[in-house]
Amino acid sequence: MNGDTRLSIGDLARRTGLSVKTIRSYSDRGIVPPTDRSPAGYRRYGPEAVARLELVRTLRALGLGLATIREVVERETALPDAAAAHAEALAVQIRVLHLRRAVLTAVARRGSTPEEMDLMHRLAGLSEDERRRLTGDFLDAVLGGLDPAFEAAGVMRSLTPELPDDPDAEQAEAWVELAELSQDPGFRASLRSMVVHHVADRAGAATPVPSRGPEAAIRDQAGPALAAGIDPASAEAGAVVATVMTAYARLCGCPDDVALRRRLLARVGSANDPRRERYLQLLAVINRWPAPVPLTPALDWFGRALRARTPA
Q1: What is the pLDDT of residues 160-202, one digit of tens each?
Q2: What is the 3-state secondary structure (H, E, C) of 52-86?
Q3: What residues contact 304, with CB distance under 8 A and at least 6 apart?
Q4: Which residues contact 146 (CB under 8 A, 6 or more apart)?
Q5: Sign of CA dihedral 217, 218, 219, 222
Q6: pTM
Q7: CATH topology of domain 3-77
Q8: Would you list the domain boundaries of the chain?
Q9: What is the pLDDT of residues 21-52, one digit of tens each?
């Protein structure tokens, strides 16, 4: 090779902007080996070393390890294969970081105790199989052992979180809170009570009834009344109660009497749990569903209106 084309480490450092120390380290690892040595023993490199060092710098900036980079520049590993493997590893790291951030954010926002933080950390670190088992245990507590005639599949789908493999920070934070909420015995019992009321209502119907429950009728009727500022004790509120009760009596196959009104009051009490509404909000974030319409204000209003018209 013509001596004019050979470069010293200093030449490479000036052309690439890398330090002499860094180039020497790469050379020692066999990533950018010297072409030969000068009579004085100094390393000398061919002009292709500049392009190789530019590639090495780019791969290092992307986070690839030196062992992998050496395999790429020596063509022991194809660049697309190395890039794909590294991208997959980064995806795992990003997911872990999102979940850690979710735990820390929740702890900071809620002023959690060390015990609560430990629980959230363990919930955040669950594998996909462990998450499915946790969700299955929750759904079994809420839906298990009901009348076989009750088609639970639709309800189950509506309550099942599906955390993606690459959740963003919002989804990760929602998962941590939802997983913790699903372990709350009080919330499980409340949701179970709502489902039991749902099943019991349909058991008395003489003919098949639509799955739409009284909560939807309450939202449709009480929501506008609440927005209009109607007093729950007013005559206008009485008309709203009568409309909802007519639909509920048809659903249950029962007359609109005191017993049925007390029954609906119990159902409204079960549904009007802020934890249920929070669960559905978190579920929508995780599954990327449209945000649910808040039901609590309408349930509050209707509960007062119905209680005012139901003998104790």
Answers
A1: 999 887 788 788 889 988 999 999 999 999 999 888 888 888 7
A2: HHHHHHHHHHCCCCHHHHHHHHCCCCCHHHHHHHH
A3: 232, 233
A4: 152, 195, 196, 199
A5: positive
A6: 0.65
A7: Multidrug-efflux Transporter Regulator; Chain: A; Domain 2 (1.10.1660)
A8: 3-77, 95-307
A9: 999 999 999 999 999 998 888 999 998 899 98
